[in-house]
Design a protein that fits this description.
By secondary structure, the chain is an alpha/beta fold. The chain has 10 helices and 14 strands. Helix 8 links the parallel strand 9 and strand 10.
Length: about 375
């Protein structure tokens, strides 16, 4: 009986030891799983959603953000929304289902509370942060409505009206300083064209409005007549990219058609061009080049063309004497701001932790503004 009792005790001993080891193993697996879900350093899986890859400025941001996230050791996947909000929403759904735990979103439908709130709701349901960038997620009237609805949400971009104000003042001062040269037909008025990037887009609306209003304020203050839109039959006083792509192609097509009717031979030449972005300015300049203008050789007439973004292509056009000026939208600054917030999440901090050095909106505490600057090839201000 004692012999049997010994074997029974031995079996109990090994069983207890086995159970203890099993429990330890389960606990270690649980800790590993918790570590993965917590998004610790090096464990972020980021989805970066662009409204389109075809936008020149956005391409600059993408390159800069790719570099910034790579340097931080953050895993990421880029997505092209191809200017379609439904496509972008589906991409976000797929990414979340595949384990993405940080969304970085350049929203397609800019300024739409419905579109941006839908994305915030997706992030909230998954319990993951979302960083919007570049394109406004809400109108001024709804400011803070979306960004204030979720504590793991932020925006990195620009103060939408600022580019329009700066461009308008730059245009106005240039006209005042060069009025007689610009006035090709000598009628005492400056005929202008305006190219708008997208209907309903907050940035496009402000740039189209203030690019002219602020220019007129400077010009009339100097005792000169306000700018006059070249086509009196167009009461909108702009031509817009119907695809919403802010594209060089759209502007080129418009300008080519315009020049067939409005030209020096007819005595009604377009004497100045204002564009919502540099891509459209490139398209305009190409159309002008085809008619012998803005060749940068010092021997031909140059029509002043203004843009926004200060892309590398625009800087080169300015250096070549083919373009007059632009407003710098800092692609690297925007990318670094986004990456800073991503690194906060990587380190287990709050999304907006330690952001005092950034320019934070006075109205919305989780909105970071990257400042604009004028660019004419000589200096940035």
């Amino acid at each position: 009986m004692k012999h049997i009792h010994f074997h029974q005790n031995k079996e109990v001993f090994y069983m207890k030891k086995f159970m203890s080891l099993l429990l330890v193993g389960i606990m270690m697996l649980s800790l590993v799983a918790c570590g993965k879900s917590g998004g610790g350093k090096g464990e972020l899986n980021v989805g970066v959603f662009y409204y389109t890859y075809s936008d020149t400025y956005i391409s600059s941001v993408r390159t800069a953000l790719d570099n910034a996230l790579t340097e931080a050791g953050i895993k990421f996947q880029n997505y092209d929304g191809n200017s379609n909000q439904t496509t972008q929403n589906e991409q976000i759904d797929t990414a979340i289902a595949q384990g993405t735990n940080l969304l970085i979103v350049n929203i397609v439908t800019s300024g739409s509370v419905d579109a941006s709130q839908a994305i915030v709701d997706k992030a909230s349901a998954a319990g993951i942060p979302v960083i919007f960038f570049n394109r406004a997620v809400e109108s001024d009237e709804d400011e803070g409505k979306v960004l204030g609805s979720y504590d793991k949400c932020a925006f990195v971009g620009t103060d939408a009206p600022e580019a329009g104000h700066m461009q308008g003042k730059m245009v106005g001062q240039y006209v005042v300083d060069n009025f007689d040269t610009i006035d090709l037909n000598g009628d005492g008025k400056i005929s202008y064209a305006m190219f708008m990037g997208q209907l309903g887009n907050v940035e496009a609306i402000y740039r189209t409005q203030y690019g002219v209003e602020d220019a007129d304020a400077v010009i009339t203050a100097a005792g000169k007549p306000a700018l006059e839109y070249f086509d009196a039959s167009n009461t909108d006083k702009y031509q817009v990219d119907q695809d919403g792509n802010w594209s060089a192609t759209a502007a080129n097509n418009y300008m080519t058609t315009n020049l067939s009717q409005y030209n020096e031979s007819a005595g009604n030449m377009i004497e100045l061009v204002i564009c919502n972005n540099d891509g459209m300015a490139e398209g305009v300049i190409s159309a002008l080049n085809d008619k012998g203008y803005n060749l940068g050789d010092g021997n031909c007439t140059t029509i002043p063309v203004f843009g926004v973004d200060a892309t590398d292509a625009a800087k080169q056009l300015i250096a070549d004497g083919k373009m007059t000026g632009t407003i710098k939208q800092d692609a690297e600054g925007m990318a670094n701001g986004i990456a800073y917030l991503a690194k906060n999440i990587q380190a287990g901090k709050d999304l907006m932790a330690d952001t005092d050095s950034f320019n934070i909106s006075e109205k919305v505490s989780n909105k970071i503004y990257i400042p604009y600057a004028t660019y004419t090839g000589e200096c940035s201000e």
